[in-house]
Write a structure and sequence with these properties.
The chain has 221 residues and is an alpha/beta fold. Helices cover 35% and strands 19% of the residues. It contains 8 helices and 9 strands. It binds (phenylmethyl) 1~{H}-pyrazole-4-carboxylate.
């Protein structure tokens, strides 16, 4: 998969995407990632990327011209162009799976009060939020999407981790898990997990997953 990122803060991307599984995916040629400075597509003396909103109001907006020029120069015909901002629909695992099927993604990081509406209406295919909070810019949300999508690309995860994916996809939170020692500072592992009774263990885990989900994430039930 090819991913192009448009951002005012390319330096934020050095580090998180150069470690662990994403690093290996890039080295293996499974992910071809390029980070582009949006300001490089502004051609006035000060390389202006923002301006004040028509009609007044607080803050600045990203101007349409640099974003249009950048996306038009980067996007192939089969590219999916996605904006990241708090106004998007909420990114989730199902969306990650959809995006993982696409050949080419162009991810545009929001900033300031956001995008000129014409970017949304005539350039972007989709607008995603990673949750109901406000960040200083969309670089972290872009990295979240890259991470969630890349681990779903064929060949990126080993077989062990793929199994974890399966257990998450039953739609409940994970049941409590323990490893050795069986007792640590007086804190004991539940007896059933040491019993060797596989039917009882499966029943306990199912109950615990359901209980935890109803307490923490009733919206998932
Ligand atoms: C941003 C205008 C983009 O804050 C976010 C965000 C939160 N969830 N998902 C994205 O993005 C930065 C802020 C203001 C556009």
């Amino acid at each position: 998969m090819k991913i192009d990122v448009l951002t005012l803060f390319p330096a934020m991307f050095a580090g998180p995407l150069d470690e662990s599984i994403i690093k290996r995916a890039r080295e293996a040629g499974l992910l071809d990632l390029s980070i582009h400075q949006l300001r490089d597509y502004a051609h006035d003396r000060h390389r202006t990327v923002d301006d004040r909103p028509f009609g007044g109001g607080p803050g600045m907006l990203l101007k349409p011209e640099p974003i249009f020029e950048a996306v038009e120069s980067l996007a192939s015909d089969q590219a999916r162009v996605v904006l990241l901002s708090p106004s998007g629909r909420t990114f989730d695992q199902a969306t990650a799976q959809e995006l993982a099927k696409v050949e080419h993604l162009v991810l545009v990081s929001g900033h300031y009060e956001g995008f000129d509406e014409r970017v949304r209406e005539n350039l972007a295919d989709d607008e995603l939020s990673i949750g109901d909070y406000v960040l200083t810019n969309g670089a972290l949300p872009v990295m979240v999407v890259i991470d969630a999508v890349t681990r779903l690309l064929p060949g990126v995860l080993g077989d062990d981790s793929s199994a974890v994916e399966e257990s998450f996809s039953h739609g409940l939170l994970e049941y409590p898990q323990f490893t050795r020692p069986a007792e640590f500072r007086g804190m004991k592992v539940p007896e059933v997990l040491l019993s060797g009774n596989h039917a009882a263990i499966a029943k306990w885990r199912a109950e615990q997953a359901r209980l935890r989900t109803s307490e923490r994430r009733p919206d998932l039930l």
